[in-house]
Predict the structure.
Amino acid sequence: MIATLKAEDQNQLQLVEREDIDDEEDLFEAIDKLIAQGINAGDIKKLQDAGIYTCNGLMMHTKKHLTGIKGLSEAKVDKICEAAEKIVNFGYITGSDALLRRKSVIRITTGSQALDELLGGGIETLAITEAFGEFRSGKTQLAHTLCVSTQSVFFLTTGTSSRPDRIIPIAERFGMDPGAVLDNIIYARAYTYEHQYNLLLGLAAKMSEEPFRLLIVDSVIALFRVDFTGRGELAERQQKLAQMLSRLIKIAEEFNVAVYMTNQVIADPGGGVFISDPKKPAGGHVLAHAATIRLMFRKGKGEQRICKVFDAPNLPEAEAVFQITPGGIADAKD
C-alpha cells in the first residue's frame, strides 16, 4: 500500500491508503533493464547522460531526438527502441486497463477541506495543475502547504517568492518535525529559461532513485517573459515554452508525479466591458493545452482567497473559499 495525506479538521493530517496495482517500482522500468535485451552498458550511459533513466521515458522521445545524442547512430537507436518495446507496453490497451492504471493516481491534500472537495480530493499525480492569479492571491502559499502534505518534493523556483522558513509554521500546525520536513524538500533556483529546462532534465536521475510525489514550478512563465521580448521573439518563446511543458508532462506520467505550477496573469483587452480590470493567464494556447487542470485564484476579504476551476477534464466549474494562515492554506472562517 502507498499512503498520502488528507486534511482532517484544521490542524491534523491523516494518512489515507490507496490500493496499488503493482509494487511502486513497477510504475516505471529502469533503463538498465535494456542490458538483458542486448544493449551495451556504454549506450545506456549515453542515454543517462542525456537525462533518460527509464524505458518509459525513452519511449517518450522521438528517434530524431535520440539520434541527436552523441554516439547513438540510427541503427543503434532502432535497436534500443525495439528492446524498450519488449519491456514496456506503449501500444493499445482496453478501457478497463486504462481505468486500472488510473488507480495509481494519488491525491495530495491542499490543507483545506473545501479546496480538496473542489479538486475531487486534492492535487493529483499523473497531471499538471496550473494555478494562475495576481500577486498575493495564494498560489505560492498553496505550494508551501503542499510541500508539507506531500513530503517528497522538488521545488523549482524562478523568483524570490519561495521561502523555506515558511515551511516551519506549516509543519508545526500539522504536528510534524520542521527539520524532517525541510530535509524532504529539494530546492533549485533557475535564472534563465535554459537553466530551468536543464534542471528539469536532471530530475530524471533523482526520481528514478527515490520516490518523489510532487514537482512545483513557481513560476512557469516568469523567465520566458524576461528572456524573450517583443513580438519578433514570440514564436521562438512559445516553441521553447512548449518544449518545457512537454518535459513536465513526461515527468508527471513517467514517475506518477503531481506537477503544480504557478502562472502569472496579463491584461485582457478583449475581456469585455462588463468586467473591471479583466485578466487572463500568461502563456497563450501553448500553456492552456498543456495544463490538465487550470485554477484561477483571486483575492477575497482579508486573508480569504477564492479558487475557481477554470478548466478541467473531470471537474465541474465551481469555486471554493479558503484562507491563508500562518500555518498555510486552511478552510475559511465564517
Remarks:
- The radius of gyration is 21 Å.
